[in-house]
Amino acid sequence: MTEVLEEQAERGTQLGRVSHWIGGETVAGESGRSGPVYNPAKGVQTKEVDFASVEEIDRAVQVAKDTFAKWRQVSLSKRQELFFAIRELVHQRKDEIAAILTEEHGKVFSDAQGEVQRGLEVVEYACGIPTLLKGDFSEQASTGIDVYSIRQPLGVVAGITPFNFPAMVPMWMWAPAIACGNTFVLKPSEKDPSAANFTAQLLKDAGLPDGVFNVVHGDKVAVDAILEHPDVSAVSFVGSTPIARYIYETGTKRGKRVQALGGAKNHMIVLPDADIDMAADAAVSAAYGSAGERCMAISHVVAVGDAGDKLVEAIKERLPKIKVGDGMEPDVEMGPLVTREHRDKVASYLESGPEQGATLVADGRDSSPDGDGFFLGVSLLDNVTPEMDAYKDEIFGPVLGISRVDTYDEAVRMVNENPYGNGTAIFTRDGGVARRFEFDVQAGMVGINVPIPVPVAYYSFGGWKQSLFGDRHIYGPEGIDFYTRGKVVTSRWPDPATSKIDLGFPQTR
Ligand code: NAD
Fold first, then answer.
1. 180 flagged as catalytic
2. Does the beta carbon of 161 sit less than 6 angstroms from any atom of ligand 1?
3. What is the H or E stretch that residue 437 is in?
């Protein structure tokens, strides 16, 4: 199955080649365009990924369209049975998927296992599809007339996904989309594309008919071809805010249903009454896990009153103990960044931050492991203010910023004035203040003494403000809603006793 990963490129190099997956088989790209895939811990290119042309996107969509006619006929119980089989297979092969993630993304193996597990929860939710698609029924809505609602699939739907969760974010999309009866075209990140092909083979092995799940690799050319394609009914996107906005505006202009999740700046407020050790452990875990390349990472802490000095001291004390290195080594806790360019961009905030007035408490450039890997050690910037680039930008790396404010109100105002609104957290022992925070704060996902409040699979995931374009969150009940459209049937069966001519507008009483 992993020939696709091991296949040697036909272009005279020794690099593995990652090709498209269309109609249940590997399809070598013919556009003549491709991109490099790296092992970021070693800093070397390991593969070359094909970039799809407009024609190749059209071919994948055509296959998905042809398959849709058959797939939507498959009964709910068969779909459910299939999803149980998919669940089992993904569970059995979890470590292989995780190893691919570590190799191409760089996150440590245990974190990669966690990613697959959280994605699997969405597959488990999709196993309940017969219940999730139940409609309403009103008997005798009018005399002899029943009314009922049904939800039907949209057709061909596409997913465009980011580099930072190469297995989980696609699962957020394909699991509900396919369970609802749609066929799917995935355009994964070109930086770590192999997990998508591995998943495609697993779905086939589990019994999913060919053509229901397709993978096309590529860059803007592929994305634009998806957005322009008249046979793509809906697009789910997860990635950075500028691209999310572009996807939403372009896709909706073409009449598609679009949910586009963007970037984030997730604040954690620490009140003076908080358990400082617990807050410091949480801030360190949530800021530096996956090298800060999580859309739900805590990238900014707002310390209120005298919590500040104690918290900075507690965080600083924990940093030297974090082991940075190749994520396949068992005791390593933080891996490299995804590319050299991204590492250099993240490191630039360690220059601009102090230049603009922040205090560099820990400089990750001093603690990066030797070698060619794209490493940057853990970094801490204190006294960050809203005008600084280190505050305004997402950063998306192992750099935690801290601001000091005097009151709870100032802290909440800071969160609410930030253009992003993905996740946020408060650390306090005061239930009344926590409740007020949950009421006041403008963000889609809120943690109370929980730093990364990613909702469980039977709720939905999504931010507010510039962290989400579109009106439906992803997975959970809103995911089912997104991938289906409603129909209401008003029905009357011939009954000679009630039949008569009536030219009046239909009345319900
Ligand atoms: P990205 O926006 O660069 O890329 C995402 C996808 O868009 C990729 O498939 C990429 O090929 C495509 N793309 C990139 N540039 C494009 C262009 N100009 N035109 C059309 N398509 C383009 O994001 P990334 O760097 O892969 O991922 C990191 C970002 O994703 C961060 O901002 C992070 O916060 C965000 N993210 C958000 C969530 C969320 O749930 N809100 C989850 C994960 C990641």
1. no
2. yes
3. helix 431-440
Residue of 163, 216, 228, 396 with the most ligand 1 atoms within 8 Å of its CB, for mutation = 163
Name 27's bridge partners: 20
Q: What is the pLDDT of residue 498?
A: 67
3-class SS letters over 165-194: CCCHHHHHHHHHHHHCCCEEEEECCCCCCH
- Residue 174 CA, ligand 1 centroid: distance in Å: 17
Average pLDDT over residues 406-432: 98
Q: Which helix (H) or strand (E) holds 236?
A: strand 232-238
Which tokens go with 399? 């750099």
Helices 94-104 and 76-92 pack at an angle, to 10 degrees, of 60
Q: What is the DSSP string of 195-216?
A: HHHHHHHHHHHHTPPTTSEEE-
Note whether 319 and 378 are within 8 A (CB).
yes
Question: CA-CA distance, 507 to 458, in Å (whole number)?
Answer: 39
Per-residue pLDDT reduced to its tens digit, 245-278: 999 999 999 999 999 999 999 999 999 999 999 9
Tell me if 334 sits within 8 A of 284, measured CB to CB.
no
DSSP conformation letters of 288-341: HGGGG--TT-EEEEEEETTHHHHHHHHHHHHGGG--BS-TTSTT--B---S-HH
Residue located via tokens 């450039």: 365
CA–CA separation, 339 and 267 (whole Å): 25
Tell me how far the alpha carbon of residue 267 lies from the centroid of ligand 1, in angstroms. Answer: 21
* Residue count (the chain): 509
Give the C-alpha separation, 346 to 287, whole Å.
14
Ordered alpha helix ranges (H), 330-407: 340-355, 389-392
Ligand 1 centroid distance, CA of 491 (Å)? 46
Which pair of tokens denotes residue 373?
């890997």
Residue among 237, 295, 300 whose CB has most ligand 1 atoms within 8 A, to mutate: 295
Instruction: Determine which residue's CA is closest to atom 18 belonging to ligand 1.
Output: 220
97 Cβ partners below 8 Å, 6+ apart? Answer: 90, 112, 116, 167, 195, 198, 199
* Global pTM value: 0.95
**What b/e string do you get for 181-199 counting C-beta neighbours within 10 Å, with b at 16 or more?**
bbbbbbbbbbbbbbbbbbb
pLDDT, tens digit, 9 for 90 and up, residues 6-26: 444 444 457 999 999 999 999
CA neighbours within 13 Å on the CB side: how many for 188? 36
How many Cα atoms occupy the beta-carbon half-sphere of 185 within 13 Å? 35
Q: How many other CB atoms sit within 10 Å of the CB of residue 424?
A: 33
Start-to-end CA span in the chain (Å): 62
Token reading at 44 = 């070397």
Of 363-367, 418-422, 458-462, 497-501, where does mean pLDDT reach its minimum? 497-501
